[in-house]
Amino acid sequence: MQQNNQPLINNTVLVVDDDEVNREILTEILDDDYNLIVTASGEQALDVLDHGPALVLLDIMMPGIDGYETCRRIKELAGPDRRSPHVILVSAKASTTERVRGYEAGADDYLVKPFDEDELLAKVRVQLRLYDALSRLDRANAHNAARADVLENVVEEQSREIADSRDLVVFALAKLAESRDPETGAHLERIRAYCQILAEQLAADSPYAPLIDQAFIDAIYLASPLHDIGKVGIPDAILLKPGRLTNEEYDLMKHHTDIGADALEEVAGHSTGGGFLSMAIEIARSHHEKFDGTGYPNGISGHEIPLSARITAVADVFDALTSVRVYKSAFGPTVARSMIENDSGTHFDPVVVEAFCKRFDDFCEIRQHMNDEAVQSTPSAA
Question: How does strand 12-16 pair with strand 55-59?
Fold first, then answer.
């Protein structure tokens, strides 16, 4: 009931009737309570709609455009940002057929001449209140939509900040593990760039294209630097040994794959990282598996090895071959490529090797752009 006492947003009524007497009668009844606009034809009514009436009292039988057509044109002016005025058709025709025809033209109500003054006023009040309520709802919806847009932008910005922070933390953890080996330089930066290039090539032109979407490419860029995070659990005496490892030491070194994957699984259990963490676990555990089944830790082969790990294996070995270590000098990129091609089908997935060869120039560019200060080439390096 309280709503009915609210002042109307719009109390303008447009009277349209070609009969002067009818116009005068309607004016006398309505003029004290409403802001009136009075016209004598449908054409004139359409011309003054920009004045924004909330209600149109519309005669049907008029020369020129009749009331039905005028009503249709009024309703057609409605849009997302504009509510059309309500229309009460006023006519001496009282048959059901005429009423239905009026409602089909878009009329909101129908009043038969000669009309009762109280009925007219009641119908006007109802339609204006209805128009008012719908207009308030439109405003509320527009306000809520604007607030929703602002909220969506805030959420998107916060999501980006969270994702950026997550990426920085993940890469910082990987760098922390890598920092125990002072000779790895820009290894992680190169690994993720290599993996991204391989994934893009495989997505564009390979049998694996259906398996690789943009989410996969984004995930491997983020996850691949964690491939050796398990080395934090390997003693310095083994990790930093300048010479060849003994069989016992090598067996201990191989445990870094399970150490890293288990640690990441523990993290995944407390995170919503989804595909990114799942891929990081795959890579950490399986990037030393070989396509022929002679790798570690589980000796799986072929497509049993996750695709992400098969991609990282090529990237990791290429980077290791072309980098200086305490126990070796760096091979040139061309020599490294030949070595990887020779191991296609045994160590590496042939499809991934093919993608590597197609993007070899990009690998060389990354190698040069993200070069380590300590790189030394052997005489045989290309």
Answer: parallel
